[in-house]
């Protein structure tokens, strides 16, 4: 796997940043979470005047072999149909990107359909979907490395355009299944507590999904116990169950952290990717803002695993990075607080604390 040079945030400026926040013309601490966000962004960018220049949104698409087991209410053709829809501006992600000024990049990392001639889709296809992890690893080591590199390279493209804040979304029918397994195995949490309705499974569907994923985890554990080359480390586990779009998201998060970008983490699936990225490089969490807690079963529990305090709880379960985009105005407010709000001295107001 590609090596990333990720360091914890340099906190040598913390006192100066706090002094600026406390001298803004307001009661001390009165802007609550906005002050916390401002501190984090100033530390990430090592400045008293943070910037949200050229925000970029990566929409990564990929299909999953496990979908063949009926673990999702949506058929896999919805993946490529939605990918095309995104190029026409008709998705939820398009609406929010337009609203908040994000440049949207729609990227085919592993969709089970030929999208190479579709204008507006970046072709980075590794394969037409992953293998079925009920019976074998979802991807090879080479494919895993390729997906990590794709995510990293996409971030470099954003940085070249002056991007300082990155949002990542996904399109891949069945990707709540690997997310639930990562959560269970990384958090030592019973799998049943990690599985939800996804795109809308009923109780029977959830029960079937649980049974399939239990068998998959048992097969993984058996493979680890009998194959000395398949050690149960984080990288192998991530590759065994993950989707190409999910691994690319991890690569993007790690490269963004390495380059000191602000990373907006969306809902259940992107939180699972963030969890995996943190397992690989714990210091990457310093650069992440967890934006939304959805209604997918276990999402709050997964956020608790990394001590994350999401900004919103809107009941969203669309994916695509939409929860993170909805949270952007709050982050923008924190930046505007630092850059536009007057201080006591300039405003000629008595500082009373």
What structural category characterises the helix and strand content? Answer: alpha/beta
Task: Give the SSE order as H and E letters.
Answer: HHEHHEEHEHHHHEHEHHH
Order of strands across the biggest sheet?
A: 3-2-1-4-5-6
Q: Helicity range of the residues? A: 40-55%
- Rg, nearest Å: 21 Å
Total of DSSP H or I helical runs spanning 4+ residues: 13
Q: Which band does the percent of strand residues land in?
A: 5-15%
Distance separating the two termini: 52 Å
**Number of DSSP E strands:** 6
Low-pLDDT stretches are: none
Task: Specify the biggest β-sheet.
Answer: 6 strands, parallel
Mean pLDDT: 95
Q: Any idea what the shape is?
A: globular
Quick structural gist:
This protein is α/β, with parallel strands linked by helices. Helix content is 47%, strand content 9%.
């Amino acid at each position: 796997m590609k090596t990333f040079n990720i360091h914890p945030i340099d906190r040598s400026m913390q006192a100066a940043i706090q002094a600026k926040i406390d001298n803004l013309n307001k009661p001390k601490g009165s802007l609550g979470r906005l002050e916390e966000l401002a501190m984090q962004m100033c530390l990430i960018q090592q400045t008293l005047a943070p910037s949200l220049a050229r925000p970029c949104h990566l929409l990564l698409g990929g299909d999953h072999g496990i979908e063949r087991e009926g673990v999702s209410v949506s058929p896999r053709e919805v993946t490529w149909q939605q990918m095309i829809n995104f190029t026409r501006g008709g998705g939820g992600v398009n609406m929010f990107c337009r609203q908040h000024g994000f440049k949207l990049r729609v990227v085919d990392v592993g969709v089970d359909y030929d999208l190479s001639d579709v204008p507006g889709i970046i072709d980075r296809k590794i394969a037409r979907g992953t293998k079925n992890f009920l019976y074998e690893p979802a991807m090879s080591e080479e494919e895993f490395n390729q997906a990590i590199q794709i995510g990293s390279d996409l971030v470099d493209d954003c940085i070249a355009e002056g991007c300082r804040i990155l949002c990542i979304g996904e399109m891949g029918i069945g990707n709540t299944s690997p997310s639930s397994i990562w959560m269970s195995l990384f958090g030592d949490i019973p799998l049943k507590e990690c599985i939800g309705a996804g795109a809308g499974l009923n109780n029977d569907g959830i029960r079937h999904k649980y049974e399939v994923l239990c068998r998959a985890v048992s097969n993984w554990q058996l493979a680890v116990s009998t194959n000395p080359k398949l050690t149960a480390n984080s990288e192998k586990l991530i590759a065994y169950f993950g989707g190409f779009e999910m691994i690319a998201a991890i690569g993007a998060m790690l490269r963004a952290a390495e380059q000191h970008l602000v990373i907006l983490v969306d809902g259940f699936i992107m939180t699972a990717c963030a969890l995996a990225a943190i397992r690989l490089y714990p210091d990457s969490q310093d650069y992440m803002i967890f934006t939304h807690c959805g209604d997918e079963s276990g999402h709050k529990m997964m956020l608790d695993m990394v001590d994350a305090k999401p900004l919103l709880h809107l009941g969203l379960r669309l994916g695509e990075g939409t929860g993170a985009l909805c949270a952007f105005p709050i982050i923008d407010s924190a930046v505007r607080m630092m850059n536009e709000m007057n201080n006591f001295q300039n405003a000629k107001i008595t500082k009373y604390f």
